[in-house]
Amino acid sequence: MSTTSAPLLSIQGLEKAYPNGFQALRGIDLDIEAGEFVVIIGLSGAGKSTFIRCINRLIDPTGGTIRFDGHDVTTCRGAELRALRRDMAMIFQQFNLVKRATVETNVLTGALERASTLTSLLGFWPRAEREAARGYLELVGLPGEIRRRADALSGGQQQRVAIARALMQRPKMILADEPVASLDPATSHSVMKYLKQLQEDGLTIVANLHFLSLAREYGTRVVALKDGRKVFDGPPTEITDAKFQEIYGEDAMEVEIR
Amino acid sequence: MTGSPFQQRRRGVIARTGALGLDAVLLAYGVWCLHYLSGGSGKGSGLLDRWPGVVLVAPFVAILWQALVGSLGMGGYRLRLLARDDTPAPADRRAWWGLVSMVQLGVVLAPFAILPDADSALGLSVTLAGLLMLHALWRGSLPEQVTGIRLARPPGEDRREVAAWYRRVNPWIVIVLLALTFRVGADITQVEFGKLIDGAGRAKALWAQLFDPDWSIVDKVVSAMIETVFLALMASSLALPFAFLLSFLGARNLMHGNLPGRIAYVVTRALMNVTRSIEPLVWAIIFTIWVGVGPFAGMLALFVHSVAALGKLYSEAIESIDPGPVEAIRATGANFVQVLRYGVVPQVVPAFLSFTVYRWDINVRMATILGLVGGGGIGALLINYQQMAIWPKVGTIMVFITLVVWILDLVSARARERLN
């Protein structure tokens, strides 16, 4: 049960060591309140992807605790874990749509957790879910594409389908792993604006981003990771040039995405 | 080198044992080839007499090879004989190392010379070898302690800077072994190309009759051919659902999440490999005894073999899917079967259908010979006329087999093209 005082997501001492000995996360503490737009930045290999996948247990952490909405994410299993995953939808750098399936089917997979296993295996979906899928596709500006195959769409359109799939889960939070890294700058802004709109409508967003300029524009809070540790946590305005070089290294130069 | 000192020593023991085994096997094989060619085995009477002597001597020679010139196994495992300061060991110390290693091996093998019965000798020998290995893991190997030099990978050697294994192997050893192999192989298979010329007259008569088909049996041949095609079709389509279910258990990327999954994977793969390695012709013999002579036995034979063969191909198709959509479907809170249905199946359906069509194609070709052992189809007619040496009728059958296989080959190629 969520209480008004506890944060939506509370992470303490999160660690992940891979079987080959690589220590990706070295004790991360982070509290995220409902309604925030948290941007995680850092170099490739800093642990961003591992971090975000630990939150919904696509990767099992090796230490620390994660609490989400009153539930212990790190110890739950089975139906409880699946319900938690439904509450924190995820979108990916490579969109990860089922390419040969229609756009509609892809959006409907967002409803799998609440669907009956048998009818979903047969590919049968209730009318209410189909209408919901249509609604979310309209919301992301793709009402006419419902019958097309997912791989017939452009990258930006595919990512919007992925957002519709995420919304189909009726989540409390959206985890976004480099959502615009495979897109051109103009399309990137269009996708980021959809995420911003969702945050303004009350959803919590946690997004890994490569570019600090996007973080400044869309984030309400920036968390920087370096070598599996948190090296910055604060509003985007507080990232000075010195901080920037600490996060990205001496030779780094800030690049603007317009 | 990474890992604890114990892990390093363990890898060292594995590499040294592997190198010695490889060298000994190569030497034993070379000696056996020479022995065979010198007529020592009394060609045709048993190829393996006197093997215990060769097997026992080979590892000693292998140690000498390693100590004196650097062996093929050492090259393969990137091992060198090194002094304590990691420089290459001097020649006299290498000789000592070889001597001590041979004494050590002699102690391990001594029970065979001393004890009267082989079972207890083997037991004692394995125990001694185990103790020496434990000692090597715990303290380093005995020859190293005695002589101060060791067989090991040069520390700090970057794997990427070392040439590929097939470039490190001495080409002369490979050439000599290949030459020996072909020489022995020609003897074993009794190659005698002159016979092709000697028998040309008989072949000419046979071909002349085969190319003069007897069309009076066309109706018989056509109905046998229809049986053959349907036999293959039934076997392939019945195999599809079974192979489909098994393929998920045989896919490493799906089953390696937990221990029960790993066990299911190993068992499934082992079952499929064993079933597949038994030819349909052998399965047909089993089933003619089980259900009686006829097309049903042949269909079952092709079915069993197809389940295993398709299962393996399907599993490999599953192993090569894009993991992204699987991850995405997992992230929606879907359960395991839903992840399979929406994340895996859509990605593999075209490959599965393509493999199945190809399998039908193969099964028709195999079904044409199942009749030889009573498995139904056109093979029964073929063996019948062949045994009576009515070659024009055999020719008719061959024309139809060629025709049907050719057409199916075209159809299946076209169908698979459309699927991909």
Description:
The complex is a heterodimer of chains A (258) and B (420). Chain A has 258 residues and is of the alpha/beta class. Chain A has a domain at 9-94 and 172-248: P-loop containing nucleotide triphosphate hydrolases (Rossmann fold). Helices cover 34% and strands 22% of the residues of chain A. Chain A has 9 helices and 10 strands. Chain A is globular and about 55 Å long. The N and C termini of chain A lie far apart (42 Å). Chain B is mostly helical. Helices cover 76% and strands 1% of the residues of chain B. Chain B has a two-stranded antiparallel ribbon with strand order 1-2. The chains are: A alpha/beta (258), B mainly alpha (420). Chain A binds chain B through residues 21, 56, 58, 81-86, 89-90, 92, 94-101, 105, 109-110, 112-113, 115, 117, 120-121, 162, 165, 169, 175, and chain B through 2, 322, 324-325, 327-335, 337-338, 341-343, 346-347, 349-350.
Compact summary:
With 258 residues, chain A is an alpha/beta fold. Chain A is built from 9 helices and 10 strands. In chain A, β4 and β5 (71-72) form a beta hairpin.
